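can u pls check wat happens w/ beta-D-fucopyranose
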Amino acid sequence: MSLSEFGPDFLWGVATAAYQIEGSPDADGKGQSIWDTFTHRPGKIADGSTGDVATDSYRRFPEDIALVHSLGFGAYRFSLSWPRIQPDGRTVNHAGLDHYKRVIDSCLGAGIEPWVTLYHWDLPQELENEGGWTNRDIIDAYAEYVAVVGDALGDRVTNWMLFNEPMSFTMLGYMLGEHAPGRRGLNNFFPAIHHVHLATSAGAAALRATATDPVVGTTHYLTAAKGSGPGPNLAQRAERAANAMLNRAFLEPGLGLGYPVDDAPILRMMRRYIQDGDLERCEVDLDFLGVQYYTRLRAPFRPIPGLWTIPGFGDDPEVEKTSMGWEIRPEGLGMVLDMVNAYERFGRIVVTEGGASFPDHLVAERVRDSRRIAYYESHLAQVRAAMDRGVPVDGYFCWSLLDNFEWAAGYEPRFGLVYVDYDTQRRVIKDSGYWFAEQLGGIATPPA
Ligand code: FCB
């Protein structure tokens, strides 16, 4: 697999997210986020760590952007921390905006397109105290935040993503309690889903009203769930239910199709949160869809009527897994690209995340991560094949630029193209980074 097969106009980027890399939790008037709170609660993070320091990128961003450049990537996707910009979720903090102006200008100066995610999970704690995504008031708060950002940064950023993976943060943070803010149950999960839909369309409008010619998208975790059960019919039913809950419930309201109650009857409970006119209000015309794919999930049938099954990670002993325990299933990426393309509504698709964690070791200034290179080769072959089938994909972002704080899993999983020595914050380009650099015309070359 050679990257030249994608042609000269294909966009190559790397991605990060604020809480996973920035550190400096109190700098320049930042308010507390739900992740600041959550990581300091005992027992929530596998290795007991927090994002207090992370990769110290709040201070080291010039070095990080220089790395993006030397690896030859044309785009850097990063997120804005809402509580840096509105510490209490409402009052504007100009020092926070100024920081991101410097980050953006540093990208532009290096010839790198900034791709900005407006929400990558670090909600201001004060908004969570009012119910967070379960409280309908959050829609206005979010739209106001987006307008503040559009006003301040909309002259220098073109490409925007309203949300990172609504399925992940509502499921893990509001249904299962495994991520911040640690809420559980359908009566948190369902209103959160609905309010994120309404906030997506309100946010798109706010951005278009404030930023200069914005290209507005959002990103979704998409998965090809595999059903199982006693007999093919029940297995198929479980698979359809999982796909409805994990994929369709997050894609279809935005297309004006409402919630997929046909395959997931439990979604009828959403009624409680849907007000008159809401389903029309959810509809949003996006300039691109960000697809994020990591692995295939497993959806076993459960014999209790109406009870939807929370899918698990695949556990086929024959299938190679990453250090997250995620099955490596490149064909699933082709499947989700076909799935979104079948709606015939997404004129432009960008893979905004893909990548893998492996137990990397730094030995004599090299990290020989050949498994990561193989991961990218197999997944990129799926993207190329999907493009040949007519799926309009025109960009791919690696998760991640550098090793970072992997949420509830802490620092053990390493997803970077660049290795981070957390004791010294020294960055060392891995072989996968050199693999990209060589093909993208980057200047980084491995030590002899
Ligand atoms: C995605 C998240 C990203 C990172 C990767 C491994 O679901 O968007 O922040 O944690 O998984």
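Residues 17, 20, 164-165, 168, 221, 353, 399, 406-407, 415 surround beta-D-fucopyranose (CB under 6 Å).
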